[in-house]
Amino acid sequence: MSENCRRLETIMVQGSREKEDIKGAISTPIYQSATFKHHGLNESTGYDYSRSENPTREELENTIAKLEGGKAGFAFSTGMAAIDAVIRLFIPKDHIIVSEDLYGGTYRLFEEIYRRYGIETTYVDTTDIKKVEESIKKNTKAIFIETPSNPMMRITDISKITSLAKAFKILTIVDNTFLSPYFQRPLLLGADIVIHSGTKFLGGHNDTLAGIIVANKFIEEIKFMQVSTGAVLSPFDSWLILRGIKTLAIRLEKQQKNAIKISKWLSECKRVKKVYYPGLKAHKGYDISVKQTTGFGSMISFEVNEREIIEKSLKKFQTIYFAESLGGVESLITYPYIQTHASIPEDIRNRIGIKDTLLRLSVGIENVKDLIEDLDRSLNL
Ligand SMILES: *Cc1c(COP(=O)(O)O)cnc(C)c1O
Predict the structure, then answer these.
(1) Which residues are catalytic?
(2) Residues 56-69: pLDDT tens digits?
(3) In the chain, at which residue ranges do the beta strands (DSSP E only) sit?
(4) Is this prediction's pTM over 0.85?
(5) Pocket perturbation via mutation, ligand 1, pick of 197, 207, 343 by most ligand atoms within 8 A of CB
(6) Which domains does the chain have, with CATH numbers?
(7) I need a labelling partner for 343 at 20 to 30 A (CA). Which of 5, 8, 337, 378 fits?
């Protein structure tokens, strides 16, 4: 089959197929070597030192680049290391427009680290294109969006953002962690750089940390940053993410199926005030979701009626684990207000809607009846 014909699920299973293993291994070998032998001066095998390039990591980088439809992929030790490498493309006095509802760690990186180095940010509701346009200044260099956003599941219209960005000659960077390339491919909608916390859906088993960049622009610069600052993904962790990706499609189908059922159940639950899930027709960004994605994912946030329910229920969950993180086969419930989004100031949290009655659920692949029974029992005081 010609390379161009392979569909997403096939690429997930087979990988990049850019380099055939000489011994015919079906599973990419783990090249657990820090350095590589030279046969003579200027006679490198193409691999010198694993910070620069490693065959296992390279296979992951090539695979994810194909899945996202981008020119080059880069694997980092964590999602934050990947985001850090992207922010380092900018210099003091550069201005970046950032989705106001986003992963708390990204907010912390911009505000508590890069602000010190003179990188300016404005937090905007990027679902409102007019607001985004009004925030563009002379020194604006990029728009950084998360869609669906974390944790309010706001949907930003990627094509509208990329058209606007192109008109002003600025970059669009998308954190695609929540949907993965199986459901959403921002580069094909005009984005320039895609970021992932590979810890989440790509790895999919809550067993390793990883970060990914796929870029259509600034490829040399990102490679330089990766080699120079060194937060690369280890050979073994690269292999774990490659193995995770093999089942990405079937995991996401099952997780989404469970999430649709749970979101409907929650919508009818008396102790639940509001449900945020892009797959519900009543969800604000539903139409944009349908237009720009091939699925709604498996992340649900919901508000309960009273704060009291939170503390009591978090002690009661049995099938669903009360733990940070998301995207894996195990269902996890988190309390964004004091966990993932604690580093966001209270006034911003309130404006966005991250209330002290909000819970975020990452739906796994368990039997959905067990998950619903667990929710029913735990939310019931
Ligand atoms: C988890 C997460 C990150 C950070 O990734 P790590 O692998 O934990 O460093 C960034 N963005 C989003 C949307 C995330 O969920």
Answers:
(1) 51, 103, 175, 200
(2) 999 999 999 999 99
(3) 72-76, 95-99, 120-124, 140-146, 171-175, 193-197, 211-215, 272-276, 299-304, 321-322, 332-334, 358-362
(4) yes
(5) 197
(6) 3-246 (3.40.640.10), 249-379 (3.90.1150.10)
(7) 378
